[in-house]
């Protein structure tokens, strides 16, 4: 338990360090990227600035760029990421001819995991799909460390889904979807941490079983329901028998109670508007005929 907490603390510390500055694999080189362009680089930048000043005010439209509230701009100067990391939101300036930039969307992105054919731990083939919610947490890492962060996250989600479900049996997949989703979210988040991506949520949408297995499970469920119904009916019969036994003991102790029950039965029969009413004779009247 202590090791897990230390590992989580280390991950959070690394994530805060990434958020604090635009670092990639070589942090020092990135921070000094605008000073490492060399003499020729600075010469080209100076010529670009002179050209910009000579062509004012027309060149101002090439220098001014705007990014929206949910975007960040990564500026490259002669191929190197400009010091200071992502720019925005709002207004920023670039040097024409030597600077270029890439806009990164910082909003939460949602995509569906296509249905994946998975062989479970108990050798059952199921088709499972899901949905992933993620966002770019560090725009510089998302541009500098991965070619296409969105496509890479989609492919990784598919393989992670197959790997996680391959360690579960069918009963666990059907009953522990929340645990499986949490395990996938943790795995994806760790894998995409170096890409500047935060996986916020993973959900399992649907689990499709083979038709024969569906029929077998339906037959099993029906048999289980019938067994429970028979048990409930037997328990009802047992309780009714006990109640009748207790009622017979009460009537045996009080002969007037039997007479009241007899009159109540006649009243019930008369209320049903029957055309024929049968009056049962007391057994005492039949005993005289039986003796003769």
UniProtKB/TrEMBL annotation:
The organism's place on the tree of life at top rank: Eukaryota
Query: Which residues does the annotated region (Disordered) include?
Result: 1-29
Q: Which segments constitute the Band domain?
A: 62-221
Which stretches are tagged as biased composition: Basic and acidic residues?
A: 8-19
Q: Which residues cross the membrane?
A: 42-64
Give Gene Ontology CC terms: plasma membrane
Q: Where in the cell is it found?
A: Membrane
Q: Does the keyword Transmembrane apply?
A: yes
Which UniProt keywords are present, listed alphabetically?
A: Membrane, Transmembrane, Transmembrane helix
Write out the similarity annotation.
Belongs to the band 7/mec-2 family.
**What is the protein's name according to its record?**
Stomatin
Q: Tell me what organism the protein belongs to.
A: Labrus bergylta
């Amino acid at each position: 338990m202590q090791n897990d907490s230390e590992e989580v603390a280390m991950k959070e510390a690394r994530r805060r360090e990434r958020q604090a500055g635009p670092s990639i694999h070589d942090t020092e080189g990135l921070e000094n990227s605008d000073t490492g362009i060399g003499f020729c680089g600075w010469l080209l930048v100076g010529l670009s600035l002179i050209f910009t000043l000579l062509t004012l005010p027309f060149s101002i439209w090439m220098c001014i760029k705007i990014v929206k509230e949910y975007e960040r701009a990564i500026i490259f100067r002669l191929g190197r990421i400009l010091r200071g990391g992502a720019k925005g939101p709002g207004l920023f300036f670039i040097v024409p001819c030597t600077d270029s930039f890439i806009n990164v969307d910082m909003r939460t992105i949602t995509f569906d995991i296509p249905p994946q054919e998975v062989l479970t731990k108990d050798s059952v083939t199921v088709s499972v799909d899901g949905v992933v919610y993620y966002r770019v947490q560090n725009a510089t890492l998302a541009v500098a460390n991965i070619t296409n962060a969105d496509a890479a996250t989609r492919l990784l989600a598919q393989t992670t889904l197959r790997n996680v479900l391959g360690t579960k049996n069918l009963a666990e997949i059907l009953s522990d979807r929340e645990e499986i989703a949490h395990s996938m979210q943790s795995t994806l988040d760790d894998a995409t941490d170096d890409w500047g991506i935060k996986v916020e949520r993973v959900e399992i949408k649907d689990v499709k079983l083979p038709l024969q297995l569906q029929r077998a499970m339906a037959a099993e469920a029906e048999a289980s329901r019938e067994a429970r119904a028979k048990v409930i009916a037997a328990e009802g019969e047992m309780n009714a028998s006990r109640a009748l036994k207790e009622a017979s003991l009460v009537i045996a102790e009080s002969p007037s109670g039997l007479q009241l029950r007899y009159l109540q039965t006649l009243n019930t029969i008369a209320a049903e508007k029957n055309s024929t009413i049968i009056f049962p004779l007391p057994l005492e009247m039949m005993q005289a005929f039986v003796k003769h």
